[in-house]
Amino acid sequence: MIPTLDMPPTGLPTRRQFLNRFGMGLGGVALAEMLATQQSASGAMAETGGVLGAPHLAPKAKRIIYLFMSGGPSQLDLLDYKPLLNQRHGEQLPDSVRGGQRLTGMSGNQSSIPLVGSPFTFQQHGPSGTWMSELLPHTASIAGDICVVRSLYTEAINHGPGVTFLQTGSQIAGRPSMGAWLSYGLGQDNANLPSFVVLITKGKGGQPLGAHLWGSGFLPTKHQGVLFRAAEDPVLYLNNPAGITDAGRRRMLDRLMELHEHQLELTPDVEIQNRISHYEMAYRMQSSIPEVTDTSGEPKHVLDSYGPDVKTPGTFAANCLQARRLAEKGVRFIQLYHQDWDHHGGLPGALPKLCQETDQPAAALVKDLKQRGLLDDTLVVWGGEFGRTNYCQGKIQPNFGRDHHPRCFSVWMAGAGVNAGTTYGETCEFGYNVVKDGVHIHDFHASLLHLLGIDHEKLTYKFQGRRYRLTDVHGHLVKGMMA
To answer: How far apart are CA 26 and CA 32, in angstroms?
Structure first.
């Protein structure tokens, strides 16, 4: 027997067919109503529209460019100046400061926990005299445009849960990522490009990055991030196979859409509509992706501003330039990952190299956006999943390392709605605990959504009997970070 749309290959009725037949079709009616409700909740009423239709409040930002430094950059050597550590270098971390906090398995068994000062010098920059390390000269040049937040904290003490928490609002993989939530809530700004794009620096080591970090979780799959590769074809299988013309591709998609629409009439499943939208988006991307990824027309002075690596595909510099081009085209959330900040050892030698790779491109991105008027409605975020300890992992040596530290770490923000030229939050003189204006990860997410016009308590999705949101059941606005 040849299977048809109405019969599975086994010849047995599907669950939907059984519900349609059972009880004079009342089961099918109930299923259709349930799926229609789910479809409405997913925001599938329009190809480019989000579930909100319009923001909850007047947005200050239209998009986010998130520069994620995976591995946990050392705030004590970059953005949180603590001269006391140099004065008391080699002394034991006081028990009164540690307060019984659990340590990782990498330093929890140390008989000695010696404080270690930064080998790098700090200077003040910008209108409020923001302290920054000598390793960040280019970031120092935009001190007047950024807000340094020194009081973030998290419960996650290891990389997997820590990165997942920053990206999805949960330490457990499976929840929708931040970019997926924004796509779901606000929709696409450009129908020819994905609302959520991911760029990863090529050839870096460190902790692995999984697709769950930019996945859609239980949200409809059309909201997941699209990974752009550092290759001739940024998106796999985007070009037509040999012998297939654009016209032929269009005819095939039209016939496939007819089949999907026929199936949708029989089974009103939102994922059928998502599949249709995936195919249509892929077709449009065949022309839009080559255009947006071609940087050959960029002026020399712009390329020079991003540094010497900008012409090498897959470098952080090239990805920062790509992020600006995607922002110009209306991509809602642009996620950059740069790995290898996990310095348990070799910090004095490794940290300058990482900063050399990222400092100039990140600052150039902010300047480039500002020069084009895009910084007024673009929010740029720089930071990792947690900080580093004020004590040495293992014995003090010239090329020492620092362990993971979730109690406090630093990020910086620039652009739309940011209280530029300021610092927010304060850590103790040992750089171990937050003592003023702590910002939990949920608070941080709530504030980012607020800048995009979203009330974090109202952007929800019902799944398995309860309503979920990016901030779960937590989160407060941090108005001191906002202008």
So the answer is: 10
Please provide residue 192's backbone torsions phi and psi, each rounded to the nearest 5 degrees.
Answer: -95, 0
Q: What is the largest CA-CA distance in the chain?
A: 83
In 172-303, beta strands by DSSP E: 196-200, 226-228
Number of H helices, E strands in the chain: 13, 17
Check if the beta carbon of residue 439 is closer than 8 Å to that of residue 412.
Answer: no
User: Tokens at residue 48, please?
Assistant: 């480019």
Burial of 10 (C-beta count, 10 Å sphere; 0-12/13-18/19+): exposed
> Are the C-beta atoms of 426 and 150 separated by less than 8 Å?
yes
| CA dist., res. 200 & res. 226, Å (int) | 11
Token pair 């009423």 is at which residue?
45
The H-or-E segment that residue 415 falls in is strand 409-415
Structure tokens at 313: 């595909």
SS3 state at 240: coil
Whether 405 contacts 156, CB under 8 Å: no
Tell me how far apart the alpha carbons of residues 438 and 448 are, in angstroms, rounded to a whole number: 16
Given a cut of 60, whether residue 383 has pLDDT beyond it is: yes
H or E segment to which residue 380 belongs: strand 378-383
Task: Name the DSSP class of 102.
Answer: -
- Distance CA(138)–CA(355), nearest Å, equals 10
Alpha-carbon distance of 239 to 463, in angstroms, equals 36
What is the rounded distance in angstroms from the CA atom of residue 383 to the CA atom of residue 439? 14
pLDDT category at 247 given cuts 50, 70, 90 is confident
Q: How many CB atoms lie within 10 A of CB 15?
A: 10
Q: Report d(CA 480, CA 483) in Å as an integer.
A: 8
Cβ(286)–Cβ(248) below 8 Å = no
CA gap 164, 404 in Å, rounded: 15
For residues 445 and 171, is the Cβ–Cβ distance under 8 A? no
The amino acid that residue 49 corresponds to is G
User: What confidence score (pLDDT) does residue 432 get?
Assistant: 98
pTM for this entry: 0.87
Tell me the average pLDDT of the chain: 89
- 482: helix, strand or coil: strand
Q: Is the pLDDT of residue 459 over 90?
A: yes
